[in-house]
Specification:
The protein is of the alpha+beta class and 789 residues long. It contains 30 helices and 8 strands. The longest helix has 35 residues.
């Protein structure tokens, strides 16, 4: 049962808090500790009240100046107090009168006899407190004889312009609201009484507004003023200042928290770059359920004495004790680092100017359709592909995808006019998971292990690589798999359904047709697998990709007359030399009376029938699909194919190719492109380039030798060419990271956190290179406390 405080208990707590506050205030140093507060005669008080309401009358205890008007005066205590500890003169001041906090900024005009105590105090707080820049200067208006208009003090007098145009503030200049005149802070503070007679800015004040700029410039360059300025800085450095002590304390706190946050940030970078979870069910250091973030910090503390001391002093202390190990600080850092990585990518895109985009989608663990956006652009070292964001989408129509993409481009200030390539694809859901009992699976693994065969895998609907792995494993372990299935079909401990399924697999694997198909598809998929791996390189160029696909097409074309070879391999693999049609009973076809011209001899034999009905359709369908794929590259490839042959082409062909390219990009290229291309071709003929990624090497050659100013249009051509999107492999990789970052244990993750963790995981190469010191410094500076000295 929860207990609530009674009214008396609440009143008691309130009184205790007030008493504690009064005790703290009583022990604090006040400005009035330096002054004796006495009352002026009533006539003077009335005058003061009429000119400055609510002012306290202060009068110097040593002497009274004849030119002093009815204003508060300062009585300087001769003894020097200790500014950092309680002084004995506090009790002494209390006997002279009631202490009051000065409600108005102090007026330098009110300084009478100046003691060392006042000088030390003024050196500590500085001159800015006495300048009164927020005063009403309109009350200082005076009419000088011979002038047609009135003049007054202005804020412009507090600044001076140097010969180089720099504006410097006159921190020594102070305005007196009581006399409406200007004073020199340093001269007023350190000049002797005899010297003040010759210095109006140190005695009666200065009010000649007509000649103020001239006289103030003369004063600040005078020897007396400079000597008092040196005295001020020497005394300030010797005694220290309140502001300086506060800054030193703040700097000390900042350095301490920078050390703590550097370790926190390292753990965040480690976890986010690998897509690992951060938090557990507990946020207490030492708990086994506190998650990876706090767990790694505990591990580091075992070898880091600084972190160990921090854990002992500040961790697990409850509210009011700052440790910066909380989930809130962790999330702030994740968001800050992810924002910085995204800003780096956006700035690179803007600097590269030309770019291409790839858009693809897949459902996450929460059944939210996530649209991934990939940018491809060209850096001085070559083309790169970068992930920027996951965006939830409800459809896959062209307009919906375009609206999402345009929204991102417009929000980040990227020029849509520089978009030079687009790639769109929709990912299908994964299905067809292989299921088997643990016992049957162990039997299969044990049979394949001595043969060092790959593990059997299910087919994939989307990934060609997974299909190749499944076929490769099946072909390598064909006989071992057949033996295990035979053993399962003969095992009386298995269920009837399991045994029948195994018998069906055994019957299929013993057919010649199955052996031929496994051999054929294994050969085809092996070449597709190698080509796909080559195309997945982010630095892949259009010419190289087209050559790879054309080579693969030619390879498939060469397989058409090789059926006999695959038939022999299928017989060796399956152990069967006859087709199913030959083994089974041959069906006789009924011949009608009107079909005299037909003969059974015209029918195909089983081998030819399988070739016509199965083998050739497979080859033809693959060739048809590849032809469609190559047609998508053919148009672009013809525009830029001459780049790879620049050092061998004649000038006429180079000029014709450049003019043709100029027609496609009239807004990006100038009319001088053909001449630049011919000139550039003569230059690269003297330089040897490797056949591997020759276009990228030529682009690097331009940048490394700073030839971009000599061949600006050639540089633009290479940027347009290299920024073209070749495949959507980067989008598929982002989906793999999505599965790791947002899994079934983190299915309720917000979209903002998902994007932050995804970009840190996918673009971890940028994460490792960025300088996070500015993030740590700004965070530590904003969190550091100003402690009372």
């Amino acid at each position: 049962m929860k207990k609530y405080k009674s009214g008396w208990e609440k009143e008691k707590s309130r009184r205790e808090a007030e008493a504690k506050l009064k005790k703290v205030v009583a022990g604090s140093k006040k400005v009035t500790d330096f002054f004796d507060v006495v009352s002026e005669p009533k006539s003077n008080i009335a005058e003061t009240t009429s000119s400055r309401p609510n002012a306290t009358a202060l009068r110097p205890s040593t002497s009274t100046s004849s030119d002093c008007i009815a204003e508060p005066h300062i009585n300087i205590v001769s003894s020097e107090p200790n500014l950092k500890t309680k002084s004995s003169n506090v009790a002494e001041d209390e006997t002279h009168g009631v202490k009051e906090t000065i409600q108005h900024d102090m007026d330098v005009r009110c300084w009478g006899g100046i003691s060392d105590q006042l000088r030390d105090y003024c050196c500590q707080i500085g001159s800015l407190e006495f300048q009164h820049l927020d005063a009403d200067f309109s009350t200082s208006e005076t009419c000088i004889t011979g002038d047609k208009f009135k003049r007054r003090c202005s804020k412009s007098l507090f600044w001076r312009e140097q010969l180089n145009g720099e504006i410097v503030k006159r921190e020594w200049l102070c305005y007196s609201p009581s006399t409406k005149k200007l004073y020199c802070f340093f001269c007023k503070l350190f000049a002797s009484d005899s010297e003040k007679i010759m210095l109006p800015l140190a005695s009666v004040g200065y009010g000649d507004w007509k000649h103020a700029p001239r006289d103030l410039a003369r004063h600040e360059s005078s020897n007396k003023h400079l000597s008092y300025l040196s005295t001020y800085f020497f005394r300030r450095a010797k005694k220290g200042s309140i502001c300086k002590d506060l800054e030193e304390q703040k700097e000390s706190d900042r350095k301490y928290w920078c050390k703590v946050l550097a370790r926190v940030l390292s753990v965040i970078k480690f976890l986010s770059s690998r897509g690992l979870a951060f938090r557990g069910s507990s946020e207490r250091v030492g708990s086994p359920q506190n998650g990876n973030f706090l767990g790694i910090l505990e591990l580091l503390a075992e070898y880091d004495t600084f972190l160990a001391e921090h854990n002992q002093k500040r961790v697990n202390k409850g509210k009011g004790h700052v440790s910066y190990f909380s989930s809130t600080v962790c999330e702030e850092f994740i968001d800050a680092i992810a924002t910085k990585v995204l800003n780096i990518i956006i700035s690179e895109i803007k600097q590269a100017k030309y770019y291409s985009v790839s858009v693809d989608s897949t459902p996450d663990i929460a059944n939210v359709d996530q649209l991934t956006i990939i940018f491809r652009y060209v850096l001085p070292d070559g083309p790169v592909e970068r992930f920027v964001k996951f965006m939830p989408t409800r459809g896959h129509t062209g307009r919906q995808l375009a609206d999402i993409l345009l929204e991102f481009i417009e929000y980040n200030g990227i020029s849509l006019k520089d978009l030079r390539g687009q790639s769109y694809d929709n990912a299908a859901n994964m299905s067809g998971k292989y299921k088997a009992s643990t016992h049957r699976w162990n039997l299969l693994v044990d049979a394949l292990k001595p043969l060092k065969c790959p593990t059997i895998k299910p087919l994939s609907d989307t990934r060609w690589e997974a299909r190749y792995d499944a076929l490769h494993a099946l072909r390598k372990g064909y006989q071992a798999v057949l033996q295990v299935l035979t053993a399962i079909s003969d095992d009386n401990d298995e269920t009837y359904q399991t045994k029948e399924t195994a018998r069906g697999f055994v019957s299929s694997m013993k057919k010649l047709e199955t052996g031929i198909l496994v051999v054929v598809w294994s050969c085809i998929m092996e070449r597709f697998h190698k080509t796909s791996q080559a195309l997945q390189d982010s630095k892949m160029t259009l010419n190289k990709a087209t050559n790879l696909l054309q080579g693969l097409q030619n390879f498939i074309q060469l397989l058409r007359p090789q059926f006999q070879t695959f038939e022999g391999r299928g017989q060796a693999l399956s152990g069967c030399h006859h087709y199913t049609e030959e083994i089974s009973r041959k069906k006789r076809r009924k011949v009608g009376l009107d079909s005299e011209g037909e003969s059974e001899d015209t029918s195909l034999d089983p081998s030819s029938r399988f070739k016509v009905d199965s083998y050739l359709p497979i080859i033809d369908q693959i060739l048809s699909s590849m032809k469609t794929r190559l047609e998508a590259y053919d148009g672009l490839q013809r525009k830029f194919s001459f780049l790879i042959e620049l050092n061998t082409m004649s000038n006429c062909k180079i000029e014709a190719s450049a003019k043709s390219l100029l027609q496609y990009y009239p807004d990006d290229l100038e009319e001088s492109l053909p001449q630049e291309m011919i000139h550039f071709s003569t230059l690269i003929k003297q330089h040897h380039f490797n056949s591997e990624c020759k276009e990228i090497q030529m682009f690097k050659f331009i940048n490394e030798n700073e030839f971009a100013h000599a061949f600006p249009n050639v540089s633009v051509v290479f940027k347009l060419y290299l920024c073209l999107m070749i495949s959507n492999c980067s989008g598929e990789r982002s989906f793999s990271a999505l599965k790791r970052v947002k899994n079934h244990l983190r299915s309720s993750m917000s979209q903002k956190r998902l994007n932050s963790l995804a970009i840190l995981c996918i673009e971890n190469d940028i994460l490792q290179k960025i300088d996070t010191d500015d993030i740590i410094k700004s965070f530590a500076l904003s969190k550091s406390r100003k402690c009372v000295i």
